[in-house]
């Protein structure tokens, strides 16, 4: 009997976000995410539960459970919202640069603007409360962003043939995240020091694979 129970538990499906298809449901879904975003101004993700969300919206907890069977899934959905914002950030058309290091800075300044416009972003993506699912989404997003960054480089510079260059850009993005995480967990925000050392970290890493000077691509 115990064995059957154990086997049943092994096959138990993990809770999933119930994504709405009707307009009214979509509106409520977004209202819940907006409420969590507001709560995150004063709290960490680990301090926010379903009842906190329902109380903030003045609705029944079941209305939140309908979409999010457990609280962690709310943050997964919020992470998806933020990662979509990052993917919309232009990493080209940022002006012409003579040095690739300056282009890299401009690209990350544009992405940092997303974080500053949405203060909860880093709490969800890099804070203490993020789940393995959020981390997985973030790593997938790093690959997409790395491709955008590399495309921006190719638009402005003549790049030499470098094996697995995309992988190096993915790793550079991970280094940047790691440095931001250290400061976020210690200080609760990204200080000027966090920005400085993240800049040094990503630039130093790319210097291990890129030459110090790249030939700018001729303008059309």
3D structure, described in words:
With 220 residues, this protein is mainly alpha-helical. The protein has 2 domains: 76 residues, no CATH class; 139 residues, Orthogonal Bundle (Tetracycline Repressor, domain 2), CATH 1.10.357. The protein has 10 helices and 2 strands; from the N terminus they run ααααααααβααβ. Helix 5 runs parallel beside helix 8, helix 6 packs antiparallel against helix 8 and helix 9 runs antiparallel to helix 10.
Largest sheet: 2 strands, antiparallel
The CATH architecture of the largest domain is Orthogonal Bundle
Determine the structural class based on helices, strands and strand pairing. Answer: mainly alpha
Cα-atom Rg, whole angstroms?
21 Å
Could you state the order of secondary-structure elements as H and E? HHHHHHHHEHHE
Report, as a whole number of angstroms, the end-to-end distance.
74 Å
Q: List low-confidence stretches.
A: none
Provide the β-strand percentage band: under 5%
Instruction: Give a count of the beta strands, DSSP E runs of length 2 or more.
Output: 2
Q: What is the count of distinct domains?
A: 2
Which percent bin holds the helix content? 55-70%
* Strand order, largest beta sheet: 1-2
- Mean pLDDT across residues: 88
């Amino acid at each position: 009997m115990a064995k059957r129970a154990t086997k049943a538990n092994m096959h138990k499906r993990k809770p999933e976000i119930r994504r709405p298809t009707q307009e009214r449901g979509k509106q409520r879904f977004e209202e819940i995410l907006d409420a969590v975003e507001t709560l995150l101004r004063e709290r960490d993700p680990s301090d926010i539960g379903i009842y906190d969300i329902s109380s903030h919206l003045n609705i029944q907890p079941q209305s939140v459970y309908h979409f999010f069977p457990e609280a962690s899934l709310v943050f997964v959905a919020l992470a998806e919202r933020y990662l979509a914002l990052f993917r919309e950030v232009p990493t080209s058309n940022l002006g012409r640069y003579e040095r690739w290091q300056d282009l890299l800075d401009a690209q990350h300044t544009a992405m940092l603007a997303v974080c500053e416009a949405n203060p909860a972003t880093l709490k969800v993506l890099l804070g203490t409360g993020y789940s393995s699912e959020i981390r997985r989404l973030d790593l997938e997003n790093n690959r997409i962003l790395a491709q955008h960054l590399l495309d921006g480089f190719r638009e402005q510079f003549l790049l030499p043939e470098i094996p697995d260059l995309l992988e190096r850009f993915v790793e550079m993005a991970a280094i940047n995240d790691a440095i931001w995480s250290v400061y976020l967990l210690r200080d609760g925000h990204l200080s000027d020091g966090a920005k400085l050392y993240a800049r040094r970290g990503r630039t130093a890493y790319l210097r291990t694979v890129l030459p110090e000077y790249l030939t700018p691509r001729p303008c059309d």
